[in-house]
Amino acid sequence: MKRSMTNLVLILCLSPLLMQCAAEKDVRGLDMRLRLTDSKVEEMDNAFTAIKNQRGSQAELANQLEQIKSRLLQLEARVEEKNIQTRKIQQEQASLRQNTNSQIEQLRSQFTELNNKLSGVNAQVASVSDDVTRVQENRAREAAERAAQAAKVAEEAQQKAESATTHRTIEPEETKKKPGKIEEPAKQEESAKSDTGKATSQDAETNTSDTLYNKGLAAYKANKYKDAYSAFSNYLEKNRTAPLAPNARFWLGECLYQQKEFELAILEYQKVIADYPKSNKASAALFKQGQAFEKLSEKETAKIVYNKLLADYPKSEQVEMAQKRLKDLR
């Protein structure tokens, strides 16, 4: 339809020319030109159609491009989110490594401190062992001295007994019956002397020793610790094997403890533990020894002493107190 209209327009436009040039040759030339024009018009139609097709393809491509851009934005958002998560994880790992290193350093410091304390405890144990060795040596020496003294006393008593017997044999009868004296009490006195030997002198010594012990106890209760220490020391010099000897030794340690002489008090308590392990004062001395170590800020050594008390004297009165001290020292 378009082609026919175009031909008609061309014919109308060219009609004057055709009328002027009616020659056959001119008509043929015009025909050839019309054909060329039709061909060009057809080519233009094809080009226009191709352009339309290309526009449709471009729109589709544009749509696909928009979709691709949208997907790219989504992917970029996901990548950014992953990057944020990765950085967060890296920060947490760095913080965790830092905390772990800090804890490791603290543990190393605590381990070093414990090793130092253990070395101190070992040194104290070695010192206590040396003290115990010295105490045992002193005990052996004192036992030898007591044995020699006892032998000497026995020899003197035997000599006195022999002298008394000889005197009674040689003494005239008249001298036994002096005026103003009753014979029967004299006989009873002689009989008591022959039966008991040196009982009278021992009783007198015991009474004197008890007085010294009571004097020391009274001085201690009056907070006169130096006087009490002197009294108990004098008591022990005369009564090393008396029933109250462990008590006197314990009170010596208490006098030193009250004067804040904790090292010396520990040694006195150790003498009670070593010399009188079966005495009821042994467990008390062990407990007070632990308290003295606490006063010296040797808590680990105090724990060792309290545990020894629980192991060696599980039925003593100090067990509950030792358990409480161990709980407080944790």
Written overview of the protein:
- The structure is a single chain.
- The protein is mainly alpha-helical and 330 residues long.
- 88% of the residues lie in helices and 0% in strands.
- Among the domains are: 39 residues; 121 residues, Serine Threonine Protein Phosphatase 5, Tetratricopeptide repeat, CATH 1.25.40.10.
- Helix 1 packs antiparallel against helix 2 and helix 6 runs antiparallel to helix 7.
- It is rod-shaped.
- About 17% of the residues have low confidence.
Overall geometric form: rod-shaped
Q: Return the CATH class of the domain at 210-330.
A: Mainly Alpha
**Annotated CATH architecture of the domain at 210-330:** Alpha Horseshoe
Rg over alpha carbons:
63 Å
Distance between the termini: 113 Å
Mean pLDDT: 76
Low-confidence stretches: 153-209
CATH superfamily of the domain at 210-330: Tetratricopeptide repeat domain
Helical residues, percent: over 70%
Number of E strands: 0
CATH fold name of the domain at 210-330: Serine Threonine Protein Phosphatase 5, Tetratricopeptide repeat
Q: What portion of the residues fall into strands of 2 or more residues? A: under 5%
Order of helices and strands: HHHHHHHHHHH
Which sheet architecture does the biggest sheet show? none
Q: Structural class from helices and strands?
A: mainly alpha
> What is the helix tally?
11
